[in-house]
Design brief:
This protein has 18 helices and 31 strands. By secondary structure, it is an alpha/beta fold.
């Protein structure tokens, strides 16, 4: 049946309910003990892994990683989260929970199952609120103010263990019995547990099958049979011997971020909330002064007709950004919905092919006809399109200021960086005036100014693109209720002004707004939405606006990686975070999370195939091929 599904959808769990307890119709097995599933989770998984006592010893800025082979209803996760809340004492310590589920539950089934335990209600409600759209791949979910990070991989277990980068402190080997679900217990899958385990890692499983025990012993675990739960007589627990004692309580390497736009501010705040001090450097007088300085910006992606890695990255970024920005709702984040119009014959054909080849959950988007589009957007449209109910628009400059205001973020504004110099084990950031800034690690988030700061030879395929937006006062137009996208975007009126834009000028370095660019924006807007302006004649000469310069790569995919030169040599502890183009507000939260994972040595939120889309080495490919062709 799975090969009949269109991407990126995934088969969901088929349930029957007996006395309020869910049972898998596919595997003929219950998700948890009928008498007391929460007590079972604690007995089978938490106690043999000694989680309560181990949580107490996690140091500041440290993390503890639990990996699980079957997410199911999320009951084991909630029991672990509850124990973390009770026992983990350091506010900057993070619980990472990495889990795989081949047949995920629908949100309503998850809520129904977890309602059996009133003591878990607050945690279950937050999980349900942030439960991701059911699409294949990795979903990073931030819970409890970021103190808990759930990486939920929807798909095959072997695919998940091959794709994800993490090392576990403890394992929950769950997911129905080996006899009923043999694929989960394949020797290859069990052997991969060793590769994802830290020294001293523990594991527990409800099964006592001898083949499972022997496979884990052959992978290096010391196994023992211990009493099971309820009517189950025996179960297994194990430990991976510690060869070298690791000291996790060490001062974190210092991090300096050059560039205080949305990317730099998101990364700085992410690291600071993990307890890592950051120096944030920018030549402007404050955060969000460059391309992130516009009054309004839409969270927008254009999903590809083919569901490939590029499309998956865009989808993952879109969904993560919606969950992330929710904490700023009604401050700087306005989830009004977003309408992507089928505004031309070419776009109508593209959307038609897109819908025929893909199946997305309606919470990501759904198609609407012309009448529905107008009803949702609040203004008449000429066509239908795609409605993204969770999208909307941001006030990025204000958000940047909020993000940068953290005790662990030291701000260096009006600091014009001229050079980076590698010292023995650190980097020296050399400003035009004042002393050098010495740091262990550097992340360059300087947009189109990035190439001038890279201390390696070679030509990087990064381009500077001028974008001018036009500010329309409320009396000049009929304001939509949502963001509307076509050849231009239009945002709803806020504080008496709506923003329309933006131009895409590859060969124009003019930093000042021009009448010509305003007129281009207004023409494209009136072609898209005839009648939206009350009087368009001569408006281009009287409106105001703003110019900023985007940075894009040759393939219009972002860069979030350690810097590689043209020969593939890595500049240790020097990272690039740029090339976000016109989709920066959507991509930046996910990529900041990914880079913070890497910089902190914690489990990474992206699978390997999506990491490759972000690699810095690809920026040299054209130059290398030109050299080879000579």
């Amino acid at each position: 049946m799975s090969d009949e599904l269109l991407p990126p959808s995934i088969e969901t769990a088929e349930l029957t309910w007996q006395d309020g307890v869910p049972e898998s119709s596919r595997f003929g097995d219950v998700y948890f003990n009928r008498e007391d599933g929460l007590a079972e989770s604690r007995h089978v998984f938490l106690r043999p892994n000694r989680l309560s006592e181990r949580f107490e010893s996690v140091p500041a800025r440290g993390s503890f990683v639990v990996a699980e082979s079957g997410f199911g209803t999320g009951l084991n996760f909630l029991a672990t989260w509850q124990a973390w809340r009770e026992r983990a004492t350091n506010p900057t310590a993070i619980l990472h929970f990495v889990s795989v589920e081949r047949f995920p539950l629908q949100r309503e089934d998850l809520v129904r199952a977890l309602a059996l335990w009133p003591e878990l209600t607050p945690l279950a409600a937050e999980l349900a609120d942030k439960y991701p759209p059911l699409t294949r791949g990795a979903h990073r979910i931030l819970l409890d103010g970021g103190r808990v990070r759930l990486t939920l991989y929807l798909g095959d277990i072997q695919e998940a263990w091959q794709a994800l980068q993490f090392k576990a402190d403890a394992w929950f080997l769950d997911g129905f019995s080996p006899a009923r679900n043999p694929e989960m217990w394949l020797d290859q899958a069990l052997a991969m547990i060793r590769a994802h385990s830290k020294p001293g890692a523990t594991l527990a499983t409800f099964t006592s099958v001898s083949r499972v025990r022997r496979t884990l012993e052959s992978a290096g675990f010391t196994m023992q049979v211990i009493p099971g739960f309820g009517r189950k007589r025996d179960m297994l627990a194990g430990t991976l011997p510690v060869e070298v004692e690791l000291n996790q309580d060490q001062a974190p390497p210092s991090v300096a971020i050059i560039g205080a736009g949305i990317a730099g501010c998101l990364l700085a705040r992410n690291l600071a909330e993990r307890g890592i001090p950051v120096t944030l450097i920018d030549s402007a007088t404050g955060p969000g002064a460059g391309a992130s300085g516009n009054r309004q910006g839409a969270t927008y992606v254009k999903l590809g007709v083919e569901f490939n890695d590029q499309t998956e990255l865009a989808l993952t970024a879109l969904c993560f950004s919606q969950r992330f920005y929710a904490r700023f709702r009604d401050q700087y984040w306005h989830p009004t919905g977003l309408l992507q119009l089928a505004w031309s014959e070419q776009e109508q054909d593209r959307q038609r092919r897109f819908l025929n080849r893909n199946a997305y959950p309606a919470e990501v988007f759904y198609p609407v006809d012309q009448h529905q589009a107008g009803q949702l957007a609040g203004v008449p449209t000429q066509t239908g399109g795609l409605w993204f109910p969770g999208s909307g628009w941001l006030e990025p400059a204000k958000l940047c200021t909020e993000l940068a205001a953290h005790p662990l973020i030291r701000q260096h504004f009006q600091t014009d960086v001229r050079q980076l110099q590698r010292l023995n084990s650190t980097w020296a950031i050399k400003p035009a005036t004042g002393p050098d800034i010495i740091t262990d690690r550097v992340v360059i988030c300087a947009g189109h100014l990035t190439p001038a700061l890279l201390p390696v030879s070679g030509r990087f395929r990064l381009k500077k693109i001028r974008g001018q937006v036009t500010h329309l006062e409320s009396q000049t137009l009929t304001s939509p209720r949502s963001v509307i996208c076509g050849p231009r975007y239009l945002n709803p009126v806020q504080d008496g002004v709506a923003v329309v834009g933006a131009t895409f000028d590859l060969r124009d370095d003019n930093p000042d707004p021009t009448v010509v660019s305003h007129e281009q924006n207004l023409k494209e807007l009136t072609d898209l939405l005839p009648g939206i302006l009350r009087d368009a004649e001569g408006l281009g000469e009287s409106v105001e606006g703003r110019v900023s310069f985007r940075c894009a790569t040759h393939d219009y995919q972002p860069v979030a990686d350690e810097l590689c030169d043209s020969r593939g040599q890595v500049s240790q502890n020097l990272f690039m975070f740029t090339g976000l183009g016109s989709k920066g507000l959507t991509y930046a939260p996910l990529l900041a999370e990914y880079l913070a994972d890497r910089l902190s040595g914690q489990p990474q939120c992206l699978p390997a195939r999506l990491m490759r889309r972000l690699a810095s080495q690809r920026l040299h490919q054209a130059e290398k091929s030109e050299t080879n062709s000579g």
